[in-house]
Amino acid sequence: MTDTSDRTAEQAARYPHLYAPQRWAWGGIDAQFAAELPPDGLITNIHLVGFSGDRVVLCRDARDHWFLPGGTREAAESIESCLARELREEAGARLLGEPVWIGAHRCVTDHPVPYRPWQPHPEKAWLWGWAEVTVDSEPLNPEDGEQVVEVRAVPPAEAQHLLTHHRDPWWHDLIALAVDSRTAATG
Prior knowledge:
187 residues, globular, 10-stranded mixed beta sheet, alpha+beta, single chain, 29% helix, Nucleoside Triphosphate Pyrophosphohydrolase
């Protein structure tokens, strides 16, 4: 096996819920996580496990739903621009360093048209990463986005609990992978 295959097999064993095939009924999406990053042209969504010290930055919307900052790329928007915009809009945060991309969900939707006209269809990818961030303003809360009512930096175990509560268990594994990747990178 190659180094990539070995890493994928090791991660799949360590984070089984994250690597399990997913069905995201809300979007008619079948998704499969992989450490191998997809081509830029397939990436429609970018999300970040933002670390503020040893805590994970989470957002809560008006529906009382906790989530990681990130979202949908606009037409011709770079990954970096999308990430900076989404952090500012949803968390009032900015990057303190380069993001580390830990993998992506490769997705296929059964919807007849793309979510946004400029997006690839029916295949697309959601990119996941981590980075050091600072929360230094209020969320911008644009009218066409989630209406964030709270931004909170919490210990990773609490982030796992809040993200997994009433949802798929893969969120727990995603936070664990980000924490492990950060620990390996920072010593």
